[in-house]
Amino acid sequence: MNRPIQVKPADSESRGEDRKLFVGMLGKQQTDADVRKMFEPFGSIEECTVLRGPDGTSKGCAFVKFQSNAEAQAAINALHGSRTLPGASSSLVVKFADSEKERGLRRMQQVASQLGVISPMTLHLGAYNAYTQALMQQQALVAQSAYLSPVATVAAVQMQQLAALNPSSIIATPIASLTPSSGNEAQRCLALAGLN
C-alpha cells in the first residue's frame, strides 16, 4: 500500500449524533441552566443549548449532548411526553437530533414542496425519482411550449433544469408566464435563465 492506514470513528460517532438530543416544547422562559438541571439525572452532559432567535428570545427548544448513547436513551425514555412545561403548548418532546443528512433531506423536501416540484409520494422514493419527475416535467414543458420561439423554449427548459437541480437558486417564476411574442420577451427569458 502506498498510503498509511486510517482509523477513525464512524461519522455518527465523531459528530455525536448517537448521543445528541433535540428537546422541544420547552417554555420560552427556560434557560440553559434549567434544561441542564432537567437532564443531569440521566448522565454527564457535554453540551446544553437553548435555541434563541436574533432578538435573544427562546425558540422553545434545545439541544442536549450526553457523553454516551445509553445516557441519551435513558433521558428519552424518562422525559419524552412526560409533562407539559409552563408556557408550552403540549407535552415535552425528547428525541435524538437529526443527522446532517436528515436535515439536508428535510430542507430539500421543504423547498420542493414550496415550489410544487415534487409530490409527497416522490419524497419517499428518494432523489433519483425526484430527478426523474423533474425530467418528465421538463418534457411536458417542451410539449406545452411548442409555439414558443426556439430560443425561449431553450431558456424555459434550462430554467426548469436549474430548478430541479438547485431549487433555491431560481426565482420561482411560473413557466407559463414565459410566452414571448417579441424579441424583448425572449431576452427576458434568457435573462431569467442566466443565458445572457
From TrEMBL:
Keywords: Repeat, RNA-binding. SMART domains: RRM. Gene3D superfamilies: 3.30.70.330. InterPro entries: Nucleotide-bd_a/b_plait_sf, RBD_domain_sf, RRM_dom. SUPFAM superfamilies: RNA-binding domain, RBD. Residues 19-99 form the RRM domain. Pfam families: RRM_1. Transmembrane segments: none annotated. PANTHER family: RNA BINDING PROTEIN (PTHR24012). This is CUGBP Elav-like member 3. The lineage of its organism: Eukaryota, Metazoa, Chordata, Craniata, Vertebrata.
